[in-house]
Amino acid sequence: MKPEIATIDQDETTSVPAQEVEFALILARMINTVKQDPAQLRFTVYELARSKLAGDISWADEGEQKRLLTALEVAIKGVEQFSARVDQGEGLQAPEQTQALALGSGVSPRANNQIAVLATDPGIYTNPEWQPSPPPLAKRRRPAAWLLVWFTCGILSAGALTGAIYLQRGSLAPVRVVNVPQATLPTEVKPAPQPPDSPAFPVPNDYGIYALNNGKLSELDALPEQVPDKRVSVSTPVSKASRTTLPDGHAKFVAFRRDLAGNAPDRIDVRVVARVRRSLTFDAKGKASYSPVSDEWNIRNTAYQFRVRPIVGNPEMLLIQPENADFELPAGRYVLALKNQGYDFTVAGQPTDPSQCLERTDASNGTFYSDCEK
């Protein structure tokens, strides 16, 4: 099918919005020849029209280019508004001026009426942001004609390409084109994606390791000493006192670090940090004596294993909790061991667990640690 393209001669008596009318006529003619297609086809034609127009107006100065591009956008806006009216069943009728337009014989009378309304309805082309000014007629007459020729060829190419795609989808079977009256069909509304369920506990905004106790977050300090391998019974002395104290041992932990996304361990140890209560020393005669020790702790290989699970919607965040929901850490000092880094906290109360107490022996051949005597 070779649709006939209507042309309008430009001369000195052409009204100011004549360029918009020409664009609208061409767009409407092509849309009416494939009116069984959805709105997506119109958008494809518009994009092709914009591309062809931008490439074919290099002859014009900056002001003229801006005016022509604006005219095309106004024409596209008018075609879309008119298409919306037709879809809503307004049944617009052609005014008397339609008889004066060169519409050709390749389109149905209804299409002629639609094109005529586009050409004569001033409300479609209302654009308060742009006030047209008459361009120099000598500069526009010849390039505008070539512009419409290239513009029309591009739209015909888009229609041919679309028809080839439809034939391919139909296993190359011949397709009978039937003009079906457009009706307003119910649009399938897809439900908006729901945000992930928020956790039932507060989550931190800043990176760090936090203890979660009684619905409150308490940030844990990182010890300067690394957590030793579990095969080492006692670490080097820790002289820094604990800054975070939890009211009881019913604690969970929230780890918020960049390196945890996609690289989280299955379990994390909570290691005991035992206090050194006293030291045993020997004088020159070998006599033993005990002396109290203050502000000295050691990380032990005694540990409690906690399970790890991700927090929905927060890939860099983990919830660390005991396997048994009723588990309670005994009173004392601990570190959460995460990749050889210890995060320190204390459970309030008088320590009664024997692993929380150490004695140090300073001998001539080294320093040794042992559990406190009762």
Describe the protein's architecture and organization.
- With 374 residues, the protein is of the alpha+beta class.
- The protein is built from five helices and 13 strands.
- Strands 1, 2, 3, 4, 5, 6, 7, 8, 9, 10, 11, 12 and 13 form a 13-stranded mixed β-sheet that branches.
- Strand 6 and strand 7 form a beta hairpin.
Please give the structural blueprint:
Elements (H helix, E strand, L loop, with lengths): L17 H16 L5 H17 L6 H26 L21 H12 L16 H33 L38 E6 L2 E4 L1 E6 L18 E2 L5 E5 L10 E16 L5 E5 L4 E15 L2 E9 L9 E7 L2 E7 L9 E7 L2 E6 L3
Parallel strand pairs: 4-11, 6-12
Antiparallel strand pairs: 1-2, 1-5, 3-11, 5-9, 6-7, 6-8, 6-10, 8-9, 10-11, 12-13
Helix pairs in contact: 1-3, 1-4, 1-5, 2-3, 2-5
